[in-house]
Amino acid sequence: MTMDRNQGSENSEAAAKGVAVVAIDCLKGSSKADEWNGDMLQTGDIVEELKIGSLMWVRSPFKNGKQGVQKLLHDSFKKKETSIHVRIRRGRDEFVELQACIVPNEFAGKKQYMLRSIEDPNYAVGFVDRTESECFELQGSRSTRVVSALSRAQLQDGYVSYPWERRIQELLPVPNSSCFLSMLLLPKASDRVASRYNDLEDTLSRANSWLNASQASGVPIVFMNIQTESLLTKISGETASSTVNAGSLSDLSNLANVSLYGFEDYHGVDIGVVRAVRLWYAPIGGEFALEIKLKEGDTKLGFAISRTEEGFIYISSVMDAGEDVASTRSGLRDLYKEAMRASKLLVLSRVSNQKVLPWMVSSTGAIRCYDTISLSQKLSLHRHALKPILIHVFMWDRALACQSGGIGRFRANPTPVMPVPYEMELPRPTNESQILPLPPDVELPEGPELRIERDTAGELSFRFHDFSLSSNWV
Q: What's this model's pTM, rounded to 2 decimal places?
């Protein structure tokens, strides 16, 4: 049998193209990270059989290719027959099956459908017309396709609902209140109108001295971290011209140690940035809750409070009376004696779950803290109302808190308690800005009565209570 030259050319061209088939096209990746193993359908797999529902079963070759398959899927979806079983061929004799459901493919257009895996709803495949040789080529280039897919893969973000209200009620030592403690120090103003401030090194030195002085007075705290905090302010005049113009690259190095720098916004307004310092610290032995229960006939609580120069309120005296005093019944007297033996102040950190710690140093150098007069009045009101008082104190030894068994009566240890070595305490970041606590061999004051302070917070607040009593009895 002979053939002319034109017929031979057409046959060789068809052979080069290969047989037309319907192939798999992966649209969405698996969430199980196994889409490239042999059990999952891959781009280039040849579709051999489609079994839709329990009645329709179609084998290749498919009439009209991909378009015919899409018509079958559309008709089945309209009849609500969405269950489909796909059998594909990989290579010459390897077969893989997929159980899926028919879903609309919104990105491909109207009346276009794709298959979503039953086992992994995130994995979806579609259909495409290819030649058998093209499919074999794709199947043989699996490593190349994996690398290509890796370069195109992107992580997706999402949202997870979280029971915040229940967590902060159940998982915090004090419900709805954190155990993170800090002091914010504003830079010292160098003039009356607060247009210029001392440099950052001066503010860091103030933070360092405040921490060291607190530890030396017997407050059982340890350094945790330190950071700068930027606060916006308005600037004008000479200050604005000297700060806003300092924006060249050569001047950037000078900003490392300044407490005030400025810039100009889009409307030409001069804005200043004040760099404050936030000092993070923590009690050495944690916070310990103590409940003072009251009863009819209590004329006094049996203890006095005072305040250190650094703003901490502490128990300065406890009545050494009979067992019928509220401070004795609660165990506060025994805890106070243990603090005295360890040369530590029994610092109040919370009253009725409210923090009563110093929280800020103003630009004039005044420490914002709580007033002992108003606190004494509140404690006295508790006594008159016969409402229990819940206080938290700083501990210097975790073993003491464990002996007490939680909220309730403190069980005093008959043996003297030594302070915990600082190197055994909470881990602290080691950086060039770290402030080291005082070593254990530094001499501490014999007792809290040695500190006599004025019951005011700075120059302006509580001026009517400006007297020099060392303590306030309740």
A: 0.61
Residues 119 and 205 reside in one and the same domain: no
User: Greatest CA separation found in the chain?
Assistant: 128
Q: Are strands 367-368 and 360-361 parallel, antiparallel or unpaired?
A: antiparallel
Q: How far apart are CA 390 and CA 346, in angstroms?
A: 15
Per the structure block, which two tokens stand in for 376? 């004494």
Say how many C-beta atoms besides its own lie within 10 A of residue 362's C-beta. Answer: 18
Which residue type is seen at 45?
D
> How far, in Å, CA of 215 to CA of 310, rounded?
10
Distance of alpha carbon 416 from alpha carbon 163, whole angstroms: 44
Same domain? For 291 and 341 the reply is: yes
Residues of the domain holding 401: 284-473
**How far apart, in whole angstroms, are the C-alpha atoms of residue 208 and residue 162?**
39
DSSP string, 178-196: ---EEEEEPPPBSSTTS--
The pLDDT tens digits for 338-397 are 999 999 999 999 999 999 999 999 999 999 999 999 999 999 999 999 999 999 999 998
Q: Are residues 292 and 211 in the same domain?
A: no
